Amino acid sequence: MKPSQPGLFHPRLLPTWLGVGVLWLLHWLPLPVLAGIGNLLGSLVAALPLKRRRVAETNLRLCFPEQSEAVRARWVRANFRASARAALEHSVLSWGSASRVRRLVRVEHPERMLGDGQRPVIWLAPHFVGLNMCGIRLSMDVTGVSMYVRALNPVMDKLILHIRTRFSKTILVPRHQGIKPVIRALKSGHPLYYLPDQDQGRKDAVFVPFFGIATATVSALPRLAKVANAQVVPVTTRQLPGGGGYVVTFHPAWENYPTDDLEADVARMNRWIEDRVREMPEQYLWLHRRFKTRPPGESSPYA
């Protein structure tokens, strides 16, 4: 029997409520000031001997062995700054006006958003620090569908649901319901905001190269595209310096995808993501243990 979730006003949730209150206060600040605070906070956290810092260092060493240790260390610090800044700028997503959110997150090539306009669309969104900025900004223009995992903290769960649905009736499918509701939504014309690049174990995964490393990669993208007869339209989000906000870029829809070769299709996805990561390495989700699941006989690089 699972333990019951505490009520929203349980005493042990007081620190969470205080954090939410601080975020609410921060959303009134000008974007350059908010970015400056985020950069400072990220620099302070990056200086601590945290487990996640070691994870980021390991990931960058595996993916960029040709770079010097000094370059990789600079990227780690920049990654913490970008992540902290994005976390604080979620305050604008939570309570900022629609016009302010549009100023925070701008969209390039919106004409590519729905592909050819004839078939369902899967938005392929790699894990850059501006990932949520992209999802919320797009929800202002299109009612999409996304998978949803309930947060254990009920205050955070309520805040996340508020952010993700405040501008539209976004269809949030609980992960435990499986893929069928997602396929129905896709076929009904709702684009799927799909995040493909995290280690979720061996289930439904294939080992394909990512930065030259055999990486357990969920194979759902080509399978979903085939079942729903959907186009894959990649989308990336870049954080701009100096409180300049974010730019969401829609890339051309993939042609001849999927094929009858599942492994080749997943490998193509990883190659595309790798190319985008090389364009802005300091903004990728290096804090995640991407290479945790290993082929038989290999040990985890994070041990």
Detailed description of the structure:
The chain is α/β, with parallel strands linked by helices. The chain has one domain. The chain is 44% helix and 15% strand. The protein has helices at 14-26, 31-46, 51-63, 69-95, 98-104, 131-139, 154-165, 180-187, 220-228, 262-279, and strands at residues 105-108, 121-124, 145-148, 171-174, 192-194, 205-210, 213-218, 231-239, 246-250. The strands form 3 sheets. A 5-stranded mixed β-sheet has the order 1-9-8-2-5. A two-stranded parallel ribbon has the order 3-4. Strands 6-7 form a two-stranded antiparallel sheet. Helix 1 (14-26) crosses helix 4 and helix 2 (31-46) crosses helix 4 (69-95). The radius of gyration is 19 Å and the shape is globular. The two termini are 32 Å apart.
Structure at a glance:
With 303 residues, the protein is of the alpha/beta class. The chain has one domain (11-283).
Question: What secondary-structure arrangement, pairings included, does this model have?
Answer:
Layout: H1 14-26, H2 31-46, H3 51-63, H4 69-95, H5 98-104, E1 105-108, E2 121-124, H6 131-139, E3 145-148, H7 154-165, E4 171-174, H8 180-187, E5 192-194, E6 205-210, E7 213-218, H9 220-228, E8 231-239, E9 246-250, H10 262-279
Helix pairs in contact: 1-4, 2-4, 3-4
As laid out across the biggest beta sheet, the strand order is 1-9-8-2-5
Secondary structure category: alpha/beta
Uncertain segments? none
N-to-C span: 32 Å
Main sheet specs? 5 strands, mixed
Helix content: 40-55%
User: How many structural domains can be distinguished in the coordinates?
Assistant: 1
**What is the overall shape?**
globular
Could you tell me the strand content as a percent range? 5-15%
**Tally of contiguous helical segments:** 10
Radius of gyration: 19 Å
How confident overall, as mean pLDDT? 95
SSE pattern, N- to C-terminal? HHHHHEEHEHEHEEEHEEH
Tally of DSSP β-strands:
9
